[in-house]
Amino acid sequence: LEESLDSIDWSTKTVVDLGSGTGVLGIALTVLGAKVFLTDLPEQLDLIQTNVLKNCTEEERTRAQVLPLTWGESLEPFVGGGQRVDYVVCSDLLFCAIRVGCEDSLFECITGLTSRDACGSVAPPSKVLFCYQERIARPEEEFLRRCQQVFSVEETTNLCMDDFQPGEDDEDGIESLFYSDPEIRLFWFTRK
Fold first, then answer.
1. Strand ranges in 22-177 using DSSP code E only, listed in sequence order
2. Residue 18 burial (C-beta neighbours within 10 Å; 0-12, 13-18, 19+)
3. pLDDT on residue 175
4. pTM for the model
């Protein structure tokens, strides 16, 4: 994932982080240079805003906007006025969506943020980074099949501890460890 994220020039990208939670993914993308909308339910926004203030420089904070978003409601703040969303990131949202019965709203939100009307027909298609832990196989697979009707879906393989060779160093000379769990699934969705 790190290699995948590092290969993108984030300074030219606009990202919507759906269900930001603590904001860690949106903050990381902000630090990489992206303009990021960190979104969640209204009661979660104070925590996200606090984490943005504690973890971003003043300049980075100008690119991190914390906004409420309830799936199924208006996407105007994100795609209105000719604004384009390059990436939507969704980390571990599917279980909660299925549990409370709002997977249709999650799907509509993702497709609305990435629609050709929202992105402009001449722009490259928007992409979605979609990650979740497998918990309820049948509804999760149904959700993925539904996504395949609108997106090209590519599963990304995680690096795991078995791939790590003792003594390997990263660029900074620090040994790296990679963690993978077979129940964690990571996908890139590209709008068709």
1. 35-40, 64-68, 87-91, 127-133, 151-156
2. buried
3. 45
4. 0.84
